[in-house]
């Protein structure tokens, strides 16, 4: 398996592996408990928790997720670099990374330089620019235009970028869920407070009626 086919398969296995790891942590199971539930050996679960993606097939990972009560679906995303306008990028690199990393960025656009505008900044040569942009690791690719702005760090392969996007989307979903939980808790607290006020008011009214009698 080579090229895009390998990239897509590897990414799928990585995302499925992450989902299983998250569920195991959520259940607070030990590796031994997980192995017994899934009907595999403990070393297999150890490899899973270590992220040894190469040890598993997509079919196997999907089967495990189903056993854990999860439905698996395919999500289609718009390419983050797909745009009618020329995409403006800033690439922060460290010394010798410059040529190699710039070539990787070109591959993201199929080598068509008319689709993007790339500015490369060597953090050793322009440390002030890197400081202002708060660059803490290289290589770092920033999509400045069109919005929304996006930041990618690492090997910048298509698989890495899709993985970072998936992780960012999950964090956003978790944040929205957390905010919803907080709003619901605040609403419950307000309702409880109102119920307590109503109860006190009813008690006062009852006492007043008893005195009137």
Polypeptide structure, described:
The chain has 213 residues and is an alpha+beta fold. Among the domains are: 3-67, 434 Repressor (Amino-terminal Domain), CATH 1.10.260.40; 87-156, Glutaredoxin, CATH 3.40.30.10. It has seven helices and four strands, in the order H-H-H-H-E-H-E-H-E-E-H. It has helices at 3-27, 31-38, 42-49, 58-67, 97-108, 127-132, 158-212, and strands at residues 87-93, 116-122, 140-145, 150-153. A four-stranded mixed sheet has the order 2-1-3-4. Helix 1 packs parallel to helix 4 and helix 2 crosses helix 3 (42-49). The longest helix is centred in the C-terminal third of the chain and has 55 residues, at 158-212. The model has no long low-confidence stretch (mean pLDDT 83).
Q: How would the blueprint of this fold be written?
A:
Layout: H1 3-27, H2 31-38, H3 42-49, H4 58-67, E1 87-93, H5 97-108, E2 116-122, H6 127-132, E3 140-145, E4 150-153, H7 158-212
Parallel strand pairs: 1-2
Antiparallel strand pairs: 1-3, 3-4
Helix pairs in contact: 1-4, 1-7, 2-3
């Amino acid at each position: 398996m080579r090229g895009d086919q390998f990239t897509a398969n590897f990414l799928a296995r990585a995302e499925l592996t992450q989902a299983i790891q998250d569920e195991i942590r959520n259940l607070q199971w030990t590796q031994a408990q997980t192995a017994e539930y899934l009907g595999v050996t403990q070393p297999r679960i150890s490899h899973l928790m270590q992220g040894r993606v190469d040890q598993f097939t997509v079919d196997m990972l999907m089967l495990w997720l189903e056993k854990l009560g999860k439905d698996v679906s395919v999500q289609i995303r718009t390419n983050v670099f797909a745009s009618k306008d020329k995409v403006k990028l800033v690439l922060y690199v460290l010394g010798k990374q410059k040529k190699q990393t710039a070539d990787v960025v070109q591959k993201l656009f199929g080598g068509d330089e008319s689709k993007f505008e790339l500015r490369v900044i060597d953090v050793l040569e322009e440390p002030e620019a890197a400081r202002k942009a708060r660059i803490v690791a290289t290589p770092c690719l920033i999509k400045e235009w069109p919005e929304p702005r996006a930041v990618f760090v690492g090997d910048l392969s298509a698989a890495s970028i899709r993985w970072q996007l998936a992780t960012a989307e999950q964090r956003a979903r978790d944040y929205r869920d957390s905010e919803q939980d907080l709003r619901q808790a605040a609403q419950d607290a307000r309702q409880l407070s109102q119920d307590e006020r109503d109860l006190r008011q009813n008690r006062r009214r009852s006492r007043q009626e008893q005195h009137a009698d």
